[in-house]
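Database export, one record per block. Field names are fixed; values are copied verbatim from the stored entry.
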Amino acid sequence: MSVLGIGIIGTGTWGTVHARTYAAMHGVRVLGVADLVAGRAEALANATAAAAYTDYRELLANDAIQAVSIVTPDFAHAEIALAAAEAGKHILCEKPLAMTVQQCEAIVMAAEKAGVKLMVDFHARWSPPLYKARQTIQNGDIGVPQHVYYRLSDRIHVPSKMLSWAGRSTVMWFIGSHSIDTIRWLLDDEVTRVYAVARSEVLKNMGIDTPDYYQATLHFRAGATAQLENSWILPDSQPSLIDLKCEVVGSKGAIYMDASHNRTLEKYTGKEASYPDILVMPTVYGRQMGFAAESIRHFAECVRDGKELLVTGRDGLQVTKAICAIEESVRSGHPVTVD
C-alpha cells in the first residue's frame, strides 16, 4: 500500500484533531503543516514529524503531499481551497466551504476540473445519535417527516475567548452550517425558502461585531418545515460548551434527542460542574476518537482507497446558498427563496 501524504493548513484545536486522526491511520502520513504563526506550525509539525510552513503555497508545492485539510477560520477557506484544487490536491475543508455562493461554485468547479476529491467536514453525519435518527426516518418508523426543531448553540466563551476572529464570522456560519446540513441529511431534502431573524446586542456591547443569535424557519422541497436556532450567548455557567437538541415529528411518530446534556457523564469539582465530551472528539489512550475523527478518517480512506465520498463540495454549496438566503432575510425582514 502506498502512503497517502497529507498537509494540514491551520493549527488550531481542529487542526490538532485532524493531525491526531491521520497519525493513527495506516497508509497515511502528515508531511506538512502550515500556519501564519511559525511557532504554532512548528509545534504541530514536531508532534507529527512533518515539515513546518508559514506560507500554505509552499506546502501545496510539495509533490509528496496528495491531500490537504483546510482548518483555517471561516473567512479564509476560499482562496486556499482554490489554490489546493489548482495544485491537484484532494481537499477536506472545514465548514463552511466558503462564505459566498460564487466562491463555493468556483471551488466546486475547480475541484471537478482538476479531478480531485472535495469534501466539506460536516461531521455531524457521523454522530451516532443523529445517524440512528436518520435510519429511523429512512425506515419509515415515524412516517413522513412533518416538522423539525433543531437547536445548536455555544456558550459565550466561544466568540469571546476561543475565537479571536468571531467578528469576521457569525454563529450561523460557524455552527449554523452544521445545523443546516444535518437537517438536509436527516430529511434527505433541500431548503427552498427561509425566513429568519437575528439580534445584536450582547456581543456588540463586548466589542465583538457579530449577531448574538439567529432563529430561522426553513421550508423543504417535500413539504416539511424546520425551526432552527443558533446562539452564541449561552451563559458560561452551563455545564456543556454546546447545546444540541433535535426533534423530528412525522406523520406516525417522533424522535427526540439531547446530544449535549444527556448526563451520560457528569463531573463536579470544587470550581465547576461539567458534562465532558464523550461523542465529538474525546481521546482514549492518546488516540483521537469521536465522530469528528470518523469524518476525517472517511476522507483519508476515500482518497487512499479510491472510494466515493459521503459528503461533497456540492453539499457545502447548498448549505452556503441557504445561509446567504438567511442573511438576506435578516436584512430585508422578508422570506427569501433559495436558488
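Remark 1: The longest strand covers residues 145-154.
Remark 2: The CA atoms of residues 167 and 208 lie 5 Å apart.
End of record.
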